[in-house]
Amino acid sequence: MSLKLKSGFTFDYDNLYGEGKVTDADLKGYEEDLKKAHEAMKVMRETGFIRAHLSKDGEPEKVLFSQLPYVEEGHLNSPSSLKHLQELTDHVQNNVDVVVSLGIGGSYLGDKVLFDVHCGEFWNALSREERNGFPKVLFSGNNIDPRRTGDIIHYLKNSAQIARTHEKRNLKVLLLVISKSGGTLDTMSNFMVIYDALQKAEGIDVEVVAVTDPNMENQTLLKKLAIEKGWPQYAVPDGVGGRFSIFCEVGLTLAACIGFDIQSFLDGAKDMDKACQNDDMWQNPAMLNAALKFAASEKHGRDIEVMMPYGDYLKSVSEWYIQLLAESLGKQYNKEGKEVCYGRTPLVAVGTTDMHSQTQQHQEGKLNKVVQFIRLENWKEDLEIPNVFPEAKKLADISGVTMGQALEVARQSNADALASNKRYNACFTLPELNAYHLGELLYMLAMSVAYEGELADVDAFNQPGVESYKRIMGPKLAERKAMNQKA
User: Fold this and answer.
1) Which residue is catalytic, options 356, 393, 476, 486?
2) Average of per-residue pLDDT across 127-149
3) Which of 337, 386, 412, 481 has its CA 20 to 30 A from that of 57?
4) Alpha-carbon dihedral 68, 176, 145, 351, rounded to 10 degrees
5) 327 assigned to active site
């Protein structure tokens, strides 16, 4: 059983729904709740209103991520904002050597998805011509790690020396710093260390692009710095949590720096949003996905979701999904203030890699998991496995098929084995890996958690648990600074 859209995007739920799995009776019990959830999505699209949602400051706050696929004047993504992004593309192409993307949470995870899908692991080893004039990309700000930060500085200094020696010019580095407040410890500590080191280094020209809260009346620290220093600015808008921000300038600035097809990405999200407006659950991918996963958790105890894409460059999609599911649905209290401690636990896996590490647990461990596969129907460049050693029968037996075909045989075998032992699993199929289908997939997952938040009666758009450690960390840092000053 599967739901297939006109684009070819497919949700195969045969191993998740039916006798011995999530049943019609399970879903029947949620019929009214699903109607209410669907109506809540309509209201969210039209008004930005979600019942009981408040900002971290306890103030009413709109939820605007469902607006992002629609490029219209007055929207967060508009013709003028896309033109502004094109200006960034025009500036970095054939002009900037290295972009250092500094961000954490969605500001890192979403950007890494776009980079992996578009560029791949060896982008920085390609020639400028092979990169079509786009810069190399490094990621920082997603941990407070002195060794790795020092390694980035060392790498850039070495690159500058090569540029001076061989091309008689300075190395041009752009720091893309992403922080809504401008005070994010992880991101801003890395930014200040790298910025200071590069400013002092010989042969490096440093420029900064700031992605922050655009509010002029109550300016963030980063906004004030950008105005003072004359840095170009892009927006981390209100109403879009970090885990949804890949569809706004938080993700799209990095996309602009690598030549990623922004319009196609948003078109994929838009077409998926239209599919998700269908009030028939069996034709609405997000509602169906949410209903099946929610029922699997609440009726069958399958409250762990293993996100297992088949393909190395899709691992970052799984990592992005970890934040989306964990922050959206891991809530102590429901919308009425009752303690519920709801949440399904997400886990990262990659096929075939983790068939050799995690699958023993998936296959024979506790009956508490849904394994969610992602597969590609067609690989842009597939490689046939040659019969190089015909005298070795075991090796000869695996020749004569493409690597993509072998990968799919492995996934199907995993799915069949899991199903044969009462292990729930499902599969999303992308016709191919491109910006459009990536937009479809990520938007469907984002809309799914919005539906599930309504089914579980929790606020899928706040993150009070994240604020708890921040309140503790501030005074501790101040105490450490005071100790250093005394020493």
Assistant:
1) 356
2) 97
3) 481
4) 50
5) yes
Annotated catalytic residue 470: yes
- Told to judge if 362 belongs to the known catalytic residues of this protein, a careful annotator would answer no
Give the CA distances from residue 280 to residues 21, 34, 100, in Å, rounded to whole numbers and listed in that order.
21, 10, 45
Identify the pLDDT of residue 183.
Answer: 87
Which residue's entry shows tokens 């009462």?
422
Burial annotation 248-286 (CB, 10 A radius, 16+ → b, else e): bbbbbbbbbbbbbbbeebbbbbbbbbebbeeeebeebbb
pLDDT at 36 over 70: yes
pLDDT of residue 60: 86
Q: What is the pLDDT of residues 352-362, one digit of tens each?
A: 999 999 999 99
Of the residues 4, 224, 229, 470, only one is catalytic, namely 470
Give the helix ranges, DSSP H, for 201-261: 221-229, 249-258
| Mean pLDDT of the chain, nearest integer | 95
Residue 399 makes CB contacts below 8 A (sequence gap 6+) with: 385, 386, 387, 388
Asked if residue 477 has pLDDT above 70, the reply is no
Helix (H) or strand (E) holding 438: helix 435-456
Q: Where are the beta strands (DSSP E) in 23-152?
A: 98-102, 136-140
Pick the closest to residue 65 from 458, 482, 447 (CA basis): 447
Rounded distance between C-alpha atoms, residue 301 and residue 299, angstroms:
6
Q: Give the count of beta carbons closer than 10 Å to the beta carbon of residue 138.
A: 18
| H or E element at residue 395 | helix 393-397
The two three-digit tokens of residue 228, written as one number: 């003072």
Strand partners, 99: 137, 174
**Adjacent-strand bridge partners of 54:** 60
Write the CB contacts of 113 (distance below 8 Å, at least 6 apart in sequence).
Answer: 246, 316, 317, 320, 438, 442
Strand, helix or coil at 379?
coil
Is pTM, for the whole model, over 0.90? Answer: yes
φ, ψ of residue 156 in degrees (nearest 5): -70, -35
Reported as type and span, the H/E element at residue 27 is helix 24-28
What CA–CA distances, in Å, run from 142 to 115, 151, 184, 334, 476? 15, 15, 10, 30, 20
Cα–Cα distance between 248 and 446 in angstroms, integer? 13
- Contacting residues for 474 by C-beta, under 8 A, at least 6 apart: none
Which run of H or E residues covers position 211? strand 204-212
Catalytic, out of 61, 305, 327, 452 = 327
CA distance 478 to 424: 48
What distance in Å separates the CA atoms of residue 143 and residue 239, rounded to the nearest whole number?
25
Partners of residue 425 on adjacent β-strands:
371
- For 465: left if phi > 0, alpha if psi spans -120 to 50, otherwise beta; the answer is alpha
